[in-house]
Amino acid sequence: MTLHKFKDFYPNYRETFGDGILTDFDSYSVYTERDEQVGSVKNFLVDQSGRFRYVVVETGFWIFGKNVLLPIGLARFDYDNTRIYVDGLSRQQVEELPEYHAEQVVDEVHENRVRAGYQPQAQQRAKRQFMGQTYTTDGEYYTGDRKVAPATSGLSGLSSDDAPREMVAQTQGRTAAGQNYNYDYDREPSYYGLSEQDNHEQLRLYEERLITDKSREKSGEVRVGKRVETETAEASVPVKKERVVIERNDLGTGRSANVASGSPTFDEGEVARMEVYEEEVSIEKQPFVREEVNIRKEVDRQQVRAKETVRREELDVRTEGSPPVERLR
């Protein structure tokens, strides 16, 4: 069966797998269950129906420059940490795996060598139950009560060490005889099948929400100071001024006139003095408090409404045929 590179088969894979789980799959790293880093993911190989079959791993940390294939059923994905774990994988296994080249065509010989290299992991995984089918350690499995022959039938009499070599030998013989290669991956669920745990996929629906924030920005400044202005002021003050009034009375002449008593002497130089006073206005300036100015800040609260276009993903379920679908909410 012809295998295709994931990026070539799904050129728009970032939109096709838009839930974010595998859009950046080449950022994933491969680890053993002991948390030892094996390498990094370079690509995936899918079959003609688009189903994942292999992870292309670059073993840069263990074996520099070597790319190997990892059957998808043996890859345990840790999406949160962008990691793939392979339980029980050892350095010796990786060294013995056939090297994969980006331009090569993966044939049956190469795939059998890959499956032989991961046989311990596949046997361990075959002890568990996958999608309603129970698998035994020798590769046989049952659908209900019906026993189905393993994909590597004819090898059950061999030891676990001899079986991988016999698998490759038989494959080479068939290839040499010109037989067509049409491998049924569903017959090897321990290598390519998904367990019930792996078969539970999670689709995340996203929506955009408006997140508001406030920052304190200076909108202006108020300066309150004093300046001096001058003006001419007038004040009206009543004042008193003394003046001298000289009043002369004519006492008459002749015998009817008043006769001076005594013997007046006629002397020159006799003077009557009278002091004259007046009030003068004196002006002085004295400061008074005219008014007091209190300065304070008050906070006015108001509601500011902002509008923005947001996006939201809605679930779109499309079915072909009449599969039973149970919607849980």
Describe this structure in words.
The protein has a domain at 4-192: Roll (SH3 type barrels), CATH 2.30.30. The protein is rod-shaped. With 329 residues, it is of the alpha+beta class. The chain has helices at 6-9, 13-16, 91-96, 108-117, 119-126, 162-176, 189-192, and strands at 4-5, 29-32, 37-46, 52-58, 67-71, 76-78, 83-86, 129-130, 133-135, 141-143, 146-148. The strands form 2 sheets. Strands 1, 2, 3, 4, 5, 6 and 7 form a 7-stranded mixed sheet that branches. It has a 4-stranded antiparallel sheet with strand order 8-9-10-11, with no helix packed on it. The protein is built from 7 helices and 11 strands.
Which helices and strands occur, and which strands form pairs?
Layout: E1 4-5, H1 6-9, H2 13-16, E2 29-32, E3 37-46, E4 52-58, E5 67-71, E6 76-78, E7 83-86, H3 91-96, H4 108-117, H5 119-126, E8 129-130, E9 133-135, E10 141-143, E11 146-148, H6 162-176, H7 189-192
Parallel strand pairs: 2-7
Antiparallel strand pairs: 1-3, 2-3, 3-4, 4-5, 6-7, 8-9, 9-10, 10-11
Helix pairs in contact: 4-6
